[in-house]
Amino acid sequence: MDKLLLQRLVLERLAEDLLQAEQGARTAHETATHEENIAENKYDTLGLEASYLATGQARRAEAIRQAIGQWQQFRPRAYDAGQGIQLGALVCLGHADDDEKQQQQLLFLGPDGGSMKLALEDGQFVQVISGAAPLGRALLGKHEGDELSIQVAASRQQFEVLRVE
Q1: pLDDT, tens digit (0-9, with 9 covering 90-100), for 45-71
Q2: How far, in Å, are 55, 108, 126 from residue 6 at the CA level?
Q3: How far is residue 41 from each of residues 36, 37, 45, 49, 78, measured CA to CA in Å?
Q4: What dihedral angle (degrees, nearest 10) is formed by the CA atoms of 76, 59, 21, 63?
Q5: Which three-class secondary structure state does DSSP give residue 142?
Q6: pTM for this structure?
């Protein structure tokens, strides 16, 4: 699988997210500063609430800009069995569901800020996670055939590394 294609898809999705966050911030700012939303008494808080929303959207936009910068500088490398799984690895994980059927999922480890699920043209899905995510941390340094376990809420989940690219 083409890791540069995955990186491009992540960057495209982040660009879309940035546009939405910036539009949300502009709309909230316009609402907060509109003359009809000037508070007439202490219970009239629409303008104040809109200003909080505008601030939050602006922070979200800045976080997305930082993620875009990290993903633009990111250079996924080929898997090195000597180092084990590192950022840039494409990992096929196997795990048993409640019916004990073997389920597989593809994960692409990348920089922070790119957590998303990508749908590829061939119908496959790739989950993008960062090395800082609990599953990402558990994968770092592992090799094909290794097993790992993570705690998710009240349950412990077991995985096996089936393939690494």
Answers
A1: 777 788 888 899 999 999 999 999 999
A2: 31, 8, 9
A3: 13, 11, 8, 14, 62
A4: 0
A5: coil
A6: 0.85
